[in-house]
Amino acid sequence: MSAFKEVAEGIGLAIDGAGVLVIVLGLLIATVRFAVYGRQTSDPYRQLRQDIGRGILLGLELLVAADIIRTVAVTPTLQGVLILGLIIVIRTFLSMALEVELEGRWPWQRAK
After folding, report:
1. Residue 48 contacts residue 34 (beta carbons within 8 Å)
2. In angstroms, rounded to a whole number, what is the distance separating the alpha carbons of residues 99 and 26?
3. Would you give the DSSP letter of residue 73?
4. Do 62 and 95 meet the contact criterion of CB atoms below 8 Å apart?
5. To the nearest whole percent, how much of the chain has pLDDT over 90?
6. Would you call 111 helix, strand, or coil by DSSP?
């Protein structure tokens, strides 16, 4: 069972790293896109914010997945599960707030 915990911990750390990498790459790509194509769009600042927001949203999803893997597979204690629940609530709130910022509507509303 110890080997399983080590593998699960390694997978969790790898997904954590991927989440951070996605956020950093999203920021870099958004910045380059803004620098190269910014003046060609009607609202370059809004496009920059949307590109950064998309990178953050994808990164947050990966970070939540890593937290779930580590908490459930590695340390399934009541305290760990409660902390995981709090982390998921906070990250879900952040994701929804970013979604509203990007799309201008709640996730459950239909697109215009």
Report:
1. yes
2. 16
3. I
4. no
5. 26
6. coil
Higher pLDDT, 21 or 74: 21
Give phi and psi for 71, each to the nearest 5.
Answer: -75, -45
For the chain, which residues make up each domain, given as ranges? 2-103
The C-alpha atoms of residue 71 and residue 45 are separated, in whole angstroms, by 39
DSSP state of 107: T
- Of residues 107 and 99, more confidence is placed in 99
Place of tokens 């906070």: 90
Q: How far apart are the first and last CA of the chain?
A: 51
- Residue 49's nearest CA partner among 34, 65, 71, 67 is 34
Cβ neighbours, 10 Å, residue 95? 18
Residues contacting 62, CB < 8 A, separation 6+? 15, 16, 18, 19, 22
Q: Helix (H, G, I), strand (E, B), or coil: what is residue 108? A: coil
Mean pLDDT value of segment 39-68: 87
Q: Is-contact 71 83, C-beta < 8 A?
A: yes
